[in-house]
């Protein structure tokens, strides 16, 4: 393939399956080391009505599933994470954040302008996932987000000021609305070259099949129209 393969991932940073899906995609790509790819992250919120200050994570899960089922689900996800080389932990006092500010930060990392020149958006996504799922940090806190941004080469002071001012929140919300209008109701949702749409944290073997079909210029399966719609959403060329 002459041009790098474009992989867009619609996700929410608090979604454990999105982090698992990221690892499975990485395993698939590792199996095709000669394939050049560009990964871009697109925003989605599983809980768009979450208060901006967030909620206690354990209480939030218990309110959705009930205390016993919530514990069972969290234990199952910890086992799944371990199988993928990840560690999930929700320490006492951990927050379930409103992720809008975190998505704004990821959006900035995709723009390559004055605040994010040379920033690797995929590396930032990894740090944000780890901050929430492994380190129980609050992704709704501008101080936390500014520190993480600094770790990938962004200006922490500019990031914190921009987040507190709500800069570009409208653009990110427009991207999320575009995804919903296009039919995305769950994440992770992978879009390959604007042609192939893959929903869920599929096994690496399924993702490898898509990579191979693209590499051999196979025909796009059902879902191509949806992928093309998302690939040309607000803020995207």
Give a structural overview:
The chain has 237 residues and is α+β, with helices and mostly antiparallel strands. The protein has a single domain (5-49, 97-231), classed as 3-Layer(aba) Sandwich (Glutaredoxin). 50% of the residues lie in helices and 11% in strands. The protein has ten helices and six strands, in the order βαββααβαααααββαα. It has helices at 16-30, 57-65, 67-83, 100-111, 121-133, 142-151, 156-165, 169-181, 204-215, 224-231; strands at residues 5-11, 37-43, 55-56, 95-96, 189-192, 196-199. It has a four-stranded mixed sheet, with helices on both faces. Mean pLDDT is 90; it is low at 218-237.
The CATH class, by name, is Alpha Beta
Provide the domain count: 1
N/C terminus separation? 20 Å
How many strands, which pairing sense, and closed or not: the largest β-sheet? 4 strands, mixed
The average pLDDT is 90
Identify the overall geometry.
Answer: globular
Q: How large is the share of residues in beta strands?
A: 5-15%
Order of strands side by side in the largest beta sheet?
2-1-5-6
| SSE run | EHEEHHEHHHHHEEHH
User: What is the second-level CATH architecture?
Assistant: 3-Layer(aba) Sandwich
